[in-house]
Amino acid sequence: MKIGDSAFRTIWCDGDSRVVNVIDQTVLPHRFAIKTLHSATDAALAIRDMTVRGAPLIGAAGAYGLALAMNQDPSDAHLQSAFDQLLVARPTAVNLRWALERMRGHLGPIAPDRRRNAAYAEAAAIADEDVAVCSALGQHGAELIAAAWRRTGRSQPVNVLTHCNAGWLATVDWGTALAPVYKAHRAGVPVHVWVDETRPRNQGASLTAYELGSEGVPHTVVVDNVGGHLMQHGMVDLCIVGTDRTTRTGDVCNKVGTYLKALAAHDNGVPFYVALPASTIDWRMRDGVKEIPIEEREATEVTHMSGETAEGDIATIRVTPKNSPALNYGFDVTPARLVTGLITERGVCAASEAGLLSLFPGEERAA
Ligand SMILES: CSC[C@H]1O[C@H](OP(=O)(O)O)[C@H](O)[C@@H]1O
What we know:
By secondary structure, the protein is an alpha/beta fold. It has twelve helices and 18 strands. Helix 5 (about 115-150) packs across helix 6 (about 180-185).
């Protein structure tokens, strides 16, 4: 997507030097900085510290992390050790395992002395596919927004509520939950987005607002807990969120707080959609609440906040008493019964095994 007059992806390879560049998302929106990755360790740290974040982007970063590993040492042992190091960088987004397993499966049969070029090519293919897939799901989702606009008699903008950041910064480009918003906006459908700030890392306030502002999409940043009030007062036409892992039965794991938005939407008859590429479906799992690993991050993400001072400096402050413990679960699971539909690159389906298999036949074997 565009930043100013320049088009960007979130991750790209400098072909000559074989290093990997990423937008440093820890300093947005106050700074725009590029971080260069030279090794699998750099990639693992970038995933772990959320320099790069968002399920599809985490997958692409893992893939390029293995390419960087093959650039250093293409041996079987290093392929496996880099795979293991990258896999544990963050536990919830299934895209990381999906991308690493795809890369290892592709590289394993190749002679070590021919792995480097093959690794960069496969990582680039994963990135390019993500762009195409998110563009396609954006088109399917845009039709839902256009239908909502028609239901208003084309008399007012469509109000979409989203949680966290599932925009182009969470993918290689376009995004998942925001891809339909961008496609609708560019097609002339008036849309306004309620942006959940999304404590504690504030991906909504810092990243979603930044993206929407750069694209000229009207939006309003709101505190996480106002969503239910907005829905009670008819101020939300539909919710669209992303996901880090969706089970074959349609249970959705997403940034913590998503489940509470889904409950409020269900209680107020507001359609609740989840946008996801196939790489986010975990066909091995059936019960999201029981099976999906929920990342627990450092308590300091809750007890402290970072931002820009009046002087333009980036500062971090404590927002809790020094001796108050804090608990920081990063995700929660929304049961399929609360999900109106899943927006995928192949179309929109019910949040159910039958719905997913109607779009992705042949996955029965993973039952
Ligand atoms: C398109 S996946 C976006 C997904 O990832 C975010 O989590 P995090 O920022 O911690 O990587 C959040 O769950 C988003 O919905």
